[in-house]
Amino acid sequence: MPADGGNDKQRQLDQYRVREDGTRYTTDQGTGVEDTDNSLSVGDRGPTLLEDFHLREKITRFDHERIPERVVHARGSGAYGEFQVYESLSELTCADFLSDPSLVTPTFVRFSTVAGERGSSDTVRDVRGFATKFYTRQGNYDLVGNNFPVFPIQDGIKFLDFVHSVKPEPRNQIPQAQSAHDTLWDFVQLQPETMHFIMWLMSDRSIPRSYRMMQGFGVHTFRFVNAQGKGTFVKFHWRPKLGTYSLVWDEVLRLQGNDPDFNRRDLWDTIERGDFPEYELCVQLVAEEDEHKFDFDLLDSSKIIPEEEVPLRPIGTMVLNRNPQNFFAETEQVAFCTANIVPGIDFTNDPLLQARNFSYLDTQITRLGGPNHQQIPINRPIAPVHNDHRDGFHQHMIHDSDTAYSKNSIGGGCPATAADTGNMEGVFRHYQEQVSGEVIRRRSPSFKDHYSQATLFWNSMAGWEKTHIVNAFLFELGHVERRSIKEKVVERLVNVDGDLARQVAQGLGFPPPDATVPNHGRSSPALSMDDQPRSVATRQIAVLVGDQSDSGVVGPVLEALRGRGAICDVIAPHEGTAATFEVDKQLSAATSVLYDAVLAAGGQDLVPDGYAVQFVREAFKHGKAIGVLPGAEPLLEAANLPGRQGVVDGGAGDDFAQRFAEAVAAHRHWDRDVAAFPA
Ligand code: HDE
User: Fold this and answer.
1) Mean pLDDT over residues 30-54, rounded?
2) Which residues bind heme (predicted)?
3) Fewer CB in a 10 Å sphere around the end CB: N or C, the chain?
4) Is 414 in the pocket of ligand 1 (CB under 6 A)?
5) Which domain holds residue 514?
């Protein structure tokens, strides 16, 4: 993308962008440097001089390059975007960016994993952060969400405990970015409020195929407030235009070695190519008077409002259309804060949200070195900032005023508040909620049902999703050393579903539990990933080509797939040219887990290559579509697949391309019986 930017935020950032083209090397003070390769010394082999300011500056700068990583969500990737609302929502909210459909609001989004450190792998079993900063004309609005709609704890006071349990264990810092260890599962078995979240974590939602194919949720119930001060409860949802899709666990394990940057690379590459990811912002609205009509508490972040009860209303679209230019300056230094809200949006008394409102600003003071981090270009609002805040580490502004207090007469009474001027337009006004009660330290009794929605989630899963959940429990608990913890988890699962508990117990070698807790039988079909929008666009296809491939057959199919928006990589036993095709990757540098599908387009000459055979077998094991062009049958025979579901063969040309594209767009072919297939 060009650096000229198309919106107010990009124009603001342009002032800070620095390029070195055609420049001269200088010190930080702007003094020209003669040589940056040799220290100042006495003679050829003599001691280095302390006087060498260039050497000292270089070393000092290097010594201080690192800043603390985020305590959670350390591993992340960012992108700029733009948001536009479909129609004015002014009857619900006075937020300017939600009231004017002609307004394009600049955004910055950071996706992240939670538990892993900054250099950890992308494809781990974890929640994903989906944090959006809207640079609105009324100030920054941060929607700091996740790709799960529920959280493992109900009260922010438990956040430290939860995070300490999932992070590497204190004695040895093992394991990195994994939930499969004793302390997390000890926390889970002792805190039944985790159970709904744990069902999401054990499902494939925790291993998204792409940040472009993942939902986002504001999690808490927030409030819209209109110009008359009327409130409406609101839950925010981001819905990816490409549908919600996940990887499979075995694939994830192999990806961690093959490409630890799998999700980061995918986001970067697609934006560079101009295939801009899009998300629809939807809301669930609940009238104030309906607050208590649900069988759970709207203030409880371990609960969803089932979409069948309150349907989603699409309100606008965000397009991510620009990569950052400097990872540190933009993606690392961006500071989100749930307390960054604008007129028309307000909090509720969700105790998790209330704690977050303190935490986010507080944590940046250590991470970004002081209270002026809002002045860092990526964090700077496009709305003007005027107040009496002064000084502090790294102050960038030169405040040219005689006063720094309010009220004042010396400075002409400025900056003037709305109350001073009598002009209330565009100022934040808190929702006037009536509150009363005793000061207590106690969880609300309305938060106490920890299982109904965990059961709802389980009941809503398709067969393949249930199988993956059971396997996930077995993998995770298989890494727990203390049997007493595993046993207690199984006891918890009995409350979710007897069949689930039995399957997990069996795998762990426990006697089947007597399931005495009846399943309520309700489901919410919207929770399943079984039925998603289908498209071959941006899907990555590995095209296995050999020197004996028939270009006349392969060429038109490649063209037809690319014409439908698929990304096709030609993979051959060697670099250079294979048949008449330019090779993108050599077989030993590629692997099926980097792709959504495989097109076998090679002849007999690929069969002796174990990697080519493995490519096809592994793709089959992971449920991926496999296309077989004439001449490639020997490779399929060598792969000795146990079935043909999702294997497209017979013919070539556009008809074949269409059938194969449909199989790829289906994402995975779960009807295969791959349990016994080794890959
Ligand atoms: Fe966060 N969380 N969180 N969290 N969170 C942070 O803030 C915290 C919670 C989420 O890309 C930290 O700047 C507390 C829920 C995202 O920079 C920290 C509680 C949800 C990101 C923090 C929660 C989130 C963070 C660490 C419980 C989903 C990454 C660095 C009361 C709705 C933002 C930072 C980015 C980051 C605290 C719970 C999402 C420590 C105390 C619920 C996406 O302030």
Assistant:
1) 97
2) 70, 110, 159, 356, 360, 367
3) N
4) no
5) 457-527
Whether the CB of 93 sits within 6 Å of ligand 1:
no
The reply to whether 65 falls in a domain is no
Q: Give the total number of structural domains in the chain.
A: 3
Was 367 annotated as part of a binding site? yes
Identify the domain boundary among 527, 549, 564.
527
Under DSSP, the state recorded for 145 is E
Q: How far is CA 359 from CA 157, 194, 197, 338, 365, in A?
A: 11, 21, 22, 9, 10
Q: Is 396 a catalytic residue?
A: no
Q: Which residues have a Cβ under 8 Å from the Cβ of 434 and sit 6 or more positions away?
A: none
Probe target for ligand 1 pocket from 360, 367, 374, 376, with the most ligand atoms within 8 Å of CB: 360
- DSSP letter (8 states) at residue 169: P
| Same structural domain, 504 and 598 | no
Question: Would 114 be classed as within a structural domain?
Answer: yes
CATH code of the domain covering residue 492: 1.20.1370.20
In single-letter form, the type of residue at position 549 comes to S
Residue 110 CA, closest ligand 1 atom number:
11
Boundary residue ending a domain (502, 527, 552): 527
The answer on 177 and 311 residing in a single domain is: yes
- E strands, 501-586, in order: 540-544, 567-572, 577-578, 581-582, 585-586
Identify which has the larger pLDDT, 608 or 146. Answer: 146
- Region 51-61: what's the mean pLDDT? 98
Interatomic CA distance for residues 320 and 317, integer angstroms: 10
Looking at the structure, do residues 311 and 168 belong to the same domain, yes or no?
Answer: yes
Query: Closest Cα to atom 9, ligand 1: which residue?
Result: 356
Q: Is residue 121 part of a domain?
A: yes
Whether the bond between 381 and the residue before it is cis, its omega within 30 degrees of 0, is no
Q: Which of 221, 235, 359 to mutate to test the pocket of ligand 1 (most atoms within 8 A of CB)?
A: 359
Look up the ipTM and state it: 0.98
What would the pLDDT profile of 533-582 be if each residue is shown by its tens digit? 999 999 999 999 999 999 999 999 999 999 999 999 999 999 999 999 99
Q: Is residue 369 part of a domain?
A: yes
Task: For residue range 192-226, list pLDDT tens digits in order.
Answer: 999 999 999 999 999 999 999 999 999 999 999 99
Beta carbons within 8 Å of 227's beta carbon, 6+ residues apart: 90, 94
5 band by pLDDT with thresholds 50, 70 and 90: low
Q: Are residues 205 and 272 in the same domain?
A: yes
For ligand 1, atom 7, name the residue with the nearest CA.
Answer: 360
Contacts of 454 (CB under 8 A, 6+ apart): 195, 196, 198, 199, 495, 496
- Tens of pLDDT, residue by residue over 371-403, are 999 999 999 999 999 999 999 999 999 999 999
How many angstroms is it from 338 CA to the middle of ligand 1?
A: 8
Q: Which CATH number covers residue 650?
A: 3.40.50.880
For position 377, what pLDDT does the model report?
98
Same domain, 549 and 523: no
Same structural domain for residues 242 and 365? yes
Residues 564 and 485 in one domain: no
pLDDT tens string 276-320? 999 999 999 999 999 999 999 999 999 999 999 999 999 999 999
> Among the options 7, 140, 146, 459, which is catalytic?
146
Ligand 1 contact via 129 beta carbon (within 6 Å) = yes
Looking from the CA of residue 218, the nearest atom of ligand 1 is 32
